[in-house]
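From the shared-data thread, chain only:
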Amino acid sequence: MDGDLRFLMRAKIAFLYEKNIDANVFNIYIEGGISSREAGNIVLVSKMNKNKKFQKEGLEKQGYIEFREFYREALKIVRRYGRINAQLKEKSQMCRGG
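Structure, as tokens:
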């Protein structure tokens, strides 16, 4: 009976990842899931649906209380801002010299 109570009291965490995510980055997320399981939590690793709102609602009905989302676009955004900043520096240097 005590084993059943411990099972019910464990936190349920869902790791949701976007498709086409880099394999190296995905492995880092999986390691996080493994460490969460070792800590005694119930962990689900699943690909994000197109409409993740309904996916989350369904998982909440199953008892999942925490959602960790992993996107492949994060690196592209950082790179994009880096390019913009680099272009601004070049333009400002052009203005100073002109």
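The radius of gyration is 21 Å.
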